[in-house]
Design goal:
Radius of gyration of chain B: 23 Å
Structural class of chain A: mainly alpha
Largest sheet of chain B: none
Distance between the termini of chain B: 40 Å
Structural class of chain B: mainly alpha
Shape of chain B: globular
Helix content of chain A: over 70%
Helix content of chain B: over 70%
Number of helices of chain A: 12
Largest interface: A-B, 60 and 51 residues
Order of helices and strands of chain B: HHHHHHHHHHHHHH
Oligomer: heterodimer
Number of helices of chain B: 14
Strand content of chain A: under 5%
Number of strands of chain B: 0
């Protein structure tokens, strides 16, 4: 429990750092930050809306610490005001429309690449020095080293544009009415195939290497020699003795990988015109919608921290030494 | 002279039988060379209109032209200078920061360690790209130098943790104690005794960061966050995307920069893998493993003969 509590405190500090970052950044802009932030709002917004906005973001005539408290208060109470780009839709509504898509895409891609990568890593370590061990991890590393923007463009060009096997973009066919009907869900999956494959291509290598290297280290331990001496079948040694312990570094690596998945998300969603938060943040940047941009950033940080926390809980569950 | 020779033989033994390392180094060195030799390989100015828009590859323009009628081959060569400069600058900044933070935290310990590691861990959980996007958006269209600096200053935390744990592993060794007893200054101990032991890790980190920076820079510029007037591989992708090169069938417009980025990335990744396998013998595979088994067998045989 102490471990979980310590992590929780750490994540809360991290969120505060992110909020402080958001608070400081506009104040570092050259010139009048308010004027610059709301330049894009121009004629779109009534003056009183801009005034309310300023107050919400802490641009009030008060000392800096009061501005800061004001800002924290509006973030914590989810009072994020309307989006400038999509005025008058509130920022929170825009975010809640896009978040499920991103969580779906990133979550599935991460979990599937962990499974596939770990399986390859296990097999490579099991047949050390064999064909798979020699060439397959290097192959995946080569694929993963291509920037995600480039992979996404190539896959889009080949499979969507040239071969026309998959749709040109978006999360579902816009002619259909969103619902939980099977036909609609199939359509959603069909639209998600290419973005998901692109994400997975760049992530699988991490898990192949993490599991293989962890396995190689664990296989040198005495209890493995003991298990062999007892005459256990080597398959059982691999899965029940080695892999169980080698899985811990995989859980630790999740936190690194999530940041990477989010980054991939931004490119993949932009190239495939997928309606998630990665595309939203880029659109907000292009439209100079600073409040929406900052809200996107906070939400992404929050998602990554929550996923990290889940990984921590999983870690405690997997490693009895931490359960005290 | 003697030092130089031992350095050369060290480099030689790194590449002996190391196919991945040789291929990777050759790829990166080749692309670096053609970019540096750009004026000899193309007659066109990358910033001038020299052809009709989206002209297919021909004898005159071997890689075709962009929508704005600029020569793609010339842009790739000159743009590569900018992209590689950003990658190596960012990697240098990252290595310096990660080494200083990691080694100080590991060597001094106590309060210093706590504070430095708290900062590192917070930095580590932040997803980097959104952070870069927000920074770039607030700074306005950022030039290559700024991109290199923000990439360098945001990607050190992982390296710092690796350096710290390695420093912890060697700080209690006899040679460090000996140096302390001899009254060497802390600075000298760090620079002369500790850092040389971290060189292979630092090399791995440098290559890894350069790899990351190539992709991140291309990505940021592709998303339109860079300065679109500077020619680099990322802005080439950006212009290809915004001029709808896909839809009009001008595949060369994005395939050429895309392939070059992929080749440099792949080359750096191969170097990185081979550094890993050389510096950590436990992880060896393939020809490394065979050589290791052979050596091990001779040692065993000797021992048994006794």
């Amino acid at each position: 429990m102490a471990f979980i509590l310590r992590r929780l405190v750490f994540y809360i500090i991290a969120i505060f750092v992110a909020m402080t970052f958001n608070f400081i950044l506009p104040r570092l802009m050259p010139g009048d930050p308010v004027a610059a932030m709301f330049a894009a709002a121009g004629g779109k917004m009534p003056p009183e809306a801009i005034l309310a906005y300023k107050e919400m973001l802490g641009f009030v005539d008060a000392p800096l610490w009061q501005q800061y408290l004001q800002y924290l208060k509006s973030v914590v109470t989810f009072d994020l005001g309307p989006s400038i780009m999509l005025f008058p839709t509130p920022v929170t509504a825009v975010l809640s429309n896009t978040l499920p898509w991103t969580v779906f895409l990133a979550g599935f891609a991460t979990i599937m690449s962990i499974f596939i990568g770990c399986f390859i890593g296990l097999y490579a370590a099991y047949n050390r020095g064999g064909f798979v061990d020699r060439y397959v991890p290097v192959f995946w590393q080569f694929i993963a080293s291509m920037p995600q923007a480039v992979t996404a463009l190539l896959i889009f060009f080949v499979f969507s544009l040239t071969l026309k096997w998959f749709p040109l973009g978006f999360g579902f066919n816009p002619d259909l009415e969103p619902s939980w009907a099977p036909s609609f869900l199939v359509n959603v999956l069909y639209h998600a195939v290419l973005p998901m494959v692109t994400l997975m291509l760049s992530m699988i290598a991490t898990w192949v290497f993490t599991l293989r290297n962890a396995m190689v280290n664990v296989l040198g331990e005495d209890y493995i020699a003991m298990a062999k001496a007892k005459g256990l079948p080597s398959r059982r040694i691999m899965t029940h003795y080695a892999a169980r312990n080698a899985i811990l570094p995989v859980v630790t690596a999740v936190s690194m990988a999530l940041g990477f998945a989010v980054a991939g998300q931004v490119f993949v969603e932009t190239v495939f015109n997928y309606p998630g938060i990665g595309q939203l943040i880029i659109k907000a940047v292009a439209a100079r919608d600073y409040p929406l941009m900052q809200a996107c950033f906070l939400l992404i940080v929050l998602c990554v921290l929550v996923a990290n926390f889940i990984a921590d809980i999983l870690y405690v569950w997997l490693d009895p030494r931490l359960r005290t | 002279m003697k030092k130089l020779l031992s350095l050369l033989s060290g480099i030689g033994s790194f590449y002996r039988g190391n196919t991945a390392g040789i291929i990777g180094t050759t790829l990166v060195a080749f692309i670096l060379t053609i970019c540096l030799a750009a004026p000899a390989l193309t007659d066109y100015d990358p910033n001038k209109r020299v052809a009709r828009g989206h002209e297919a590859p021909s004898a005159e323009h071997i890689m075709g032209s962009t929508r704005a009628g600029k020569d793609v081959w010339s842009q790739t060569l000159y743009g590569g200078r900018v992209s590689l400069f950003v990658a190596f600058t960012a990697a240098t900044v990252t290595s310096v920061v990660a080494l200083s933070v990691g080694v100080s935290a590991g060597y001094f310990g106590g309060r210093t360690d706590e504070i430095l590691m708290a900062i590192t861990n917070v930095m580590l959980v932040f997803p980097q790209l959104p952070l870069l996007i927000i920074l770039a958006a607030f700074l306005g269209n950022v030039g290559p130098l700024i991109i290199a600096l923000i990439l360098g200053l945001t990607s050190w935390p992982w390296g710092a943790r690796v350096m710290r744990s390695q420093t912890l592993a060697i700080r209690n060794k006899e040679f460090i104690t000996a140096a302390e007893i001899m009254g060497e200054s802390k600075f000298r101990i760090i620079v002369v005794e500790i850092i040389p032991n971290l060189i292979s890790l630092a090399a791995g980190m440098f290559v890894g960061t350069a790899l990351y920076a190539i992709g991140a820079q291309a990505g940021l510029e592709f998303l339109g966050l860079g300065d679109p007037t500077v020619v680099s591989w990322g802005t080439m992708l950006y212009w290809a995307q915004s001029s709808a090169a896909f839809y009009v069938g001008a595949w060369w417009d994005f395939l050429v920069p895309g392939t070059v980025i992929a080749l440099v990335g792949g080359g750096l990744a191969l170097i990185n893998i081979s550094i890993d396998q050389v510096s950590n013998p436990k992880l060896k595979t393939g020809s490394f493993l065979k050589a290791w088994r052979r050596q091990n067998a001779t040692v065993e045989a000797k021992r048994q003969r006794g």
